[in-house]
Amino acid sequence: EFKTTLVQRGSTLGANCTVVCGVTIGEYALVGAGSVVTHDVPAYGVVYGVPGRQAGWVSEEGIPLQSAAPDEFRCPDTAKRYRLDDGVLAPVA
Fold this sequence. Notes:
Strand order of the largest sheet: 2-5-7-8
Largest sheet: 4 strands, mixed
Low-confidence stretches: none
Number of helices: 0
Shape: elongated
Number of strands: 12
């Protein structure tokens, strides 16, 4: 059986990573080199390891986000703000 694997715009896959078929890599997500991804990666999520585990969040520029409040994050370089709502991270307009 063939399942659709989707790598969305702006995401980065590290060298020699393995993505299991049927998995979606969200927009601007970052997968570390050599990682084995067995589950969907949320937009802006950072995943690495074997098996791949989420280790944080990155900005659209790939810069690790800093926590500004329980559900709010900020890019230290651009000052762009992001909000986490029900496990979905999105830029604040």
